Amino acid sequence: MSVRTNQDRLVMQCVMGEIQHPTVKELPVRIDCEGRVHTLPNTGSIVYNVRLGDSVYGLAGDHIEPGVTIKNYRSGSENAALNILSCIGNEAVVVSGDAKGAKGFVTGTHGGVEHVLLYFPREDLERMTIGDRIQIRALGQGLELTDYAGRVHVLNCSPAVLEKLELTPAGDRLAGGGGGTRPPDGQRLRGGQLPPWGLRHHDGGLGGDRPPWPGPSALRGHRAAGELRHPLWAGLPHRGPDRGGGGP
Question: pTM value?
C-alpha cells in the first residue's frame, strides 16, 4: 500500500529563469587543502560533459553544476521564488532560442548563488545558448504525507519523484528505496551509497552545499575508498550514452 498525500490540493505555477553565464570573482583562484593554487571553472552555464551519475571527484572544477543552470534576473524576490517553488522532477521547457520546445526537468538548486539546476538531453544542450529562457511548471511545495502530517515533512520534491521513491507504511515509520546504503568495508561506494561514517553536516570542510565527506586528513588510515556522484534523483530513468534521464 502506498502512502496517501494531498497531491490533489497542490497548486502548479509557472516560474522562469535564463541560462546563467559563468562568473569569476575579482581574485579568480582557489586554494586546495594541500595549499596549491588553481584557476578553475565553477558555477553556472551549460555544462556539456558533467552529467547526472558522474563522480563529483576528479573534476578540474569547483562547485560545478551539471546540466543547465538558470537564474531569474528581474529581481531578487523573483529569483527567490524560482528557487523555492522549483521542485525536483518538475518539468522544464525551453521557450526561446534554437532549442525552443526542448523538455527537461529540475534536478536541484544551489544555495548561496541561488541557481536552479536542470537536466536536458545532450542533443538539446547543443542547441542552447546563454540567455535562453526556460519555463518550469512548479509543483510540490505544500506536499504532505496525509497519515504522517506533522511528523514527516516533504520539501522541494515533486509528486512524481515522491511516487518513484515507492514509500510504504511500516507501522509508525516509512519504508522506501530512495535512501543511501552502506557497502561492506573495503568496497568502493557507488551512486546512492553513503560513506562508511554516515552523513554528518559538521564534518571538517563541509558547507551547506558541499558533498557529505570529510577532508583528506580524516580519510588517512581508512581502507574504504569512497565515491560520490551527482545525484540520480529517485531513480529517474536512464537513456543513451549521455547517462541522463528521460524525465520523471
Answer: 0.73
Q: How many CA atoms lie within 13 A of 27 on its CB side?
A: 4
How far is residue 89's CA from residue 68's CA, in Å, rounded to a whole number? Answer: 14
Cα Rg of the chain (Å, integer): 19
The CATH class for the domain spanning 7-138 reads mainly beta
Compute the distance between CA of residue 53 and CA of residue 69 in angstroms, rounded to an integer.
17
Asked whether 138 and 86 are in contact (CB, 8 A), the reply is yes
If you search the block for the grid coordinates 537564474, which residue do you land on?
71
Count other Cβ atoms within 10 Å, centred on residue 34.
6
Question: Domain limits of the chain?
Answer: 7-138
CA distance 45 to 29: 19
pLDDT digits (tens, 9 = 90+) for 25-68: 777 887 878 888 888 898 999 999 998 888 877 888 888 999 99
Which residue in the block uniquely carries the three cell numbers 537536466?
119
- pLDDT tens track for 138-159: 999 999 999 888 888 899 999 9
